[in-house]
Design a protein that fits this description.
It contains 18 helices and two strands. By secondary structure, the chain is mainly alpha-helical. The protein has a two-stranded antiparallel sheet. The structure holds phenylalanine (PHE).
Amino acid sequence: MAMAGSAIGLGNIWRFPYMVGQGGGSAFIIVYLLSTLLISLPIFLSEAAIGRKTHKSTFGAMQRLAPGTPWRWLGLLTVISPLIILSYYSVVGGWSVEFLLKSLTFSFSSGDEAQIMGFFGSFISSPWGPLACHTAFLGICTLIVVAGVKKGIEKFSTWTMPVLFLLVVFLMVYALTLPGSKAGVDYLLKPDFSKLTASAVASAMGQSFFSLSLGVGTILTYASYVHEKENLLTTGLGTAGFDLLFALIAGFAVMPAVFAAGIEPAAGPGLVFETLPYIFAKMGASTPWLSGVVSILFFLTILVAAVSSAISMLEVGVAYLVEEKNFSRTKAVCVLFAGCWLLGALCSLSFGPLANVKILGETLFSFCDKLTSNFLMAFGGLLFTLFAGWRMKKADVRGELRAGKAFGLLYFLIRYIAPAAIIVIFLTNLFL
Ligand code: PHE
């Protein structure tokens, strides 16, 4: 459940719908499915095998299996990259805090639709509100991680994941009944391959890594806590399947609503935060109480999903500081809170006062997003498959995965297919 909690998050509800919108609808989804099966699953299994074999988080695992080699840099890289993700992720988590507070006062349920839709733009460009919400979001995650793996992370995930699932299914059913929603369903089901550029293929792969929390040591770290008697293959298949299902259901909840509202599907990161309030406003015109309840449920869903993912990013750094640097859990969490808060604050301000500060043509927020999901996650994922496929003993990988007859195929995917595919997609994108 904790692994599913890490996987299912803003990546499914916030990022997936707008990536599909920018990448050309169902053609993007097909590439996403293929990448999940052929590339992401092998990375997941590689990380899981390394983590459980050593019962150490990334840095310690590399030291144990390949002492004194440059592999320790992979250990360090994967301590840093989830913290970069956490910094900007917390900004979006903060938006969901604000939207939840707004729905608690029924703010989306009555009033002018255009004004309600415009709220997102004016909110994120103001400096203080988003900063306060970012702080609150990161604070919640910090408290859960301080409580520890069993009492904090596992407990939280076991309770919230099933509830979350029911909520999203409910929202999908509702969205599908909206007038005009059919165009959104068509958009998700009829592939338009002309929109599938090299960069869309790379984004589909990046989205698949992002959604399954791969290449940044999260899965490795969680697997290091997994008991020997658990089966990693079924855990991997379960997590990937659940995550996929969740993304698709979220897609079918959001996209029909986007079309019903007449919003451009390629609108970008604001898609969910602009579309949904519009829907709630429309719903509110006839049945305000229903709109109020649904909006509360929806933003609560996003918030809970975001928290259960964010804590997994934090845990990687915490595990490193506790295992390698002898920090207490509380001290480790506080140090990381400070670092992530600062970078996140800058990302948050990049929608307002710092909008003109650009790195390689991108605002700080989108630079951090692209750096991690299009580059660091792919790079980390590549190195993890190479490590499991070429550096670890085959017998150890076999012993961890316990995949029976399927092991040969999985090992082939880990050794050849996944690394080759990442390199090809990466280079094609770089040169095109
Ligand atoms: N998988 C998470 C999501 O879909 C994001 C994440 C990325 C979590 C990397 C952990 C590590 O929202």
